[in-house]
Amino acid sequence: MEHIQDDIPKKHTLFIVLSTLFITNALIAEVIGAKILSVEKILNIPALALPFIGDSKLNLEMSVGVLIWPIVFILSDIINEYFGKSGVKRISIIGAAMIAYAFFIVFLSTKTPPADFWLQNNALDPDGNSVNINHAYTTIFRQGLGIIIGSITAFLVGQLVDAYTFHYLRVLTQHKWLWLRATGSTVVSQLVDSFLILFIAFYLLGNWSMNQVIAVGLIQYLYKIILAIILTPVIYLMHSIIDKYLGRKASLKLIAEAKDL
C-alpha cells in the first residue's frame, strides 16, 4: 500500500515535468518561427537552387522555429507512451491556449508607446546605420494574424494526428518497437503540420505562392523526419530514465493503462 502511495506523486510529477518541457519548447518554437533561415548560409555553401515546380527553385530554407520542433514531438511521444492519447490531447489543448495567450500579450506589448531614451540609445546599428528600434521590435514580435492562426491550427491538428497515429501503432505492435511508433507517428503528423501552417499563414492569409509553400514545407518536413530518425536513441534514453524514476513495475503499469486512455 505504501509503495502504491509513493508512486502517485511520482506519476504526477512526471506528467508536470514532461508537460512543462512540451509547452515551453512549443511556445519558443512558435514565437521565433517568423524568421526563415538559410541552411546554406549556416554551412557556408552556395544555394542549392534546385529546379522545382514551374520556374521556382528549391533551397534549404525553413522556419527557425523548426530547429527545436523535434524536441516537441519526442516529448509528445513520451507523454503518449505513459499517459495515452488523452494525455497528449489534454496538453496539446493547453499548449495551444498558452500559445494564443502569449501572442495576445506580445501583441499588446507592441502597442505600448516607446520611451524616448530607449529610441535614442538604439538609434544606430553597429555599422552606424539609422535604426527605428520600435519598428523593428513591432515587426519581429507582431508576426501577424495569419501566422498566429496558422501556428495554433497546425500545432493543434499536428499533435492530435500524432497522438492518434502513435496510439494506433501501439495497438498494432502490441507495445513493441517504440522506434516504429515514434517515427511512424512523426512521419504522418508532421506531414500535416509542416504544410498546414505555411498554407494558412503565408498562402491563404499572406503573400506566398503555392510553390513557395510547397518548397519550404518540403524542406521543413524532411528536416523533421531526418531528426526524428537521428533522435530515436533519445526516446529510448528518456524511456530508461523514466523507468528508473518510477520503478520498473510502476512504469509497466502506467504504460499498460495508457493504451486505454
Total domain count: 1
Could you say which overall geometry the principal axes of the C-alpha atoms support?
globular
Binned, the helix content reads over 70%
- Strand arrangement, largest sheet? 1-4
- Arithmetic mean pLDDT: 82
Helical/strand content category: mainly alpha
The N- to C-terminal Cα distance equals 24 Å
Strand count, sense and closure of the main sheet? Answer: 2 strands, antiparallel
Number of helices: 10
pLDDT below 50 for ≥5 consecutive residues: which ranges? 1-5
Could you spell the SSE succession in H and E letters? HEHEEEHHHHHHHH
Q: Would you report the number of β strands?
A: 4
Strand content: under 5%
CA-based gyration radius: 21 Å
